[in-house]
Structure formats: structure tokens, C-alpha cells
């Protein structure tokens, strides 16, 4: 290092060491102001968050006819569809013999 800089550093008074200047105070004040604005903004955003993300329990019907409809149990629509569908395997008919090899 430069000997002039070392000489000046040794001539520094002890009460000047560790003191912040006005620039440090300005920086701290600006950071406090920015933090206050961030807290205020976050408070506004948190007010918009719902208390629970669960779906609502009460479903309001669109018209009066839906008030009298009974809700089916889960899977009941599928069971009704399967009951109305034709069967994949039919029982043997009376007009045909059970064994296809025996023709009469």
C-alpha cells in the first residue's frame, strides 16, 4: 500500500473510528420507509386470500325445479347407465341348440 495512506490511517483519532456518516442514516431511513410500504402492501394482499380453499358446502340452485331434485349418490349415474345398456353376454335362446355342432 501507499505509505501516505498508512500514515494518514495511523493519525486517525479514536473517536472517529466506527461512526456512521449522514449517508448511513439516510440509508437506514430509506430502508425503514420501504419496509413500511411492503408491510402495508402485504396486508392488503392477505385480506384478499380466502379463509379456506375448500369448496363451498351450500350450492344455490339455478331455478326452482332443482330444489325438488334428489341428489344421487356418487356413482349412481354410472350404475343407472349400466343397467340400461344391453348385456354383452346373453343367455342362450330357446330356439337354438346350446351346442353349435349339433344341428338337427
What distinguishing features does this structure have?
104 residues; mainly alpha; elongated
Task: Please give the structural blueprint.
Blueprint: H1 3-10, H2 22-48, H3 76-84
Structural summary, described in words:
The relative contact order is 0.03. The protein is 42% helix and 0% strand. The chain starts with a helix and ends in a 20-residue tail after the last helix. The mean pLDDT is 77. With 104 residues, it is mainly alpha-helical. The protein has helices at 3-10, 22-48, 76-84.
In short:
The protein is 42% helix and 0% strand. It is built from 3 helices and no strands.
Derived from helix and strand composition plus strand pairing, the structural class reads mainly alpha
Q: Give the terminus-to-terminus CA distance.
A: 120 Å
Biggest β-sheet strands, sense, barrel: none
Instruction: Name the helicity range.
Output: 40-55%
Helical run tally? 3
Uncertain segments are none
Amino acid at each position: 500500500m501507499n505509505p501516505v495512506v498508512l500514515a494518514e490511517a495511523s493519525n486517525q483519532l479514536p473517536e472517529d473510528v466506527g461512526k456512521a456518516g449522514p449517508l448511513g442514516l439516510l440509508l437506514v431511513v430509506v430502508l425503514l420507509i420501504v419496509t413500511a410500504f411492503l408491510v402495508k402492501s402485504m396486508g392488503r394482499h392477505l385480506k384478499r386470500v380466502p379463509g379456506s380453499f375448500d369448496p363451498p358446502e351450500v350450492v344455490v340452485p339455478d331455478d326452482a325445479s332443482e330444489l325438488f331434485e334428489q341428489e344421487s349418490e356418487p356413482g349412481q349415474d354410472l350404475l343407472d347407465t349400466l343397467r340400461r345398456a344391453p348385456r354383452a353376454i346373453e343367455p342362450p335362446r330357446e330356439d337354438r341348440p346350446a351346442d353349435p355342432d349339433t344341428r338337427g
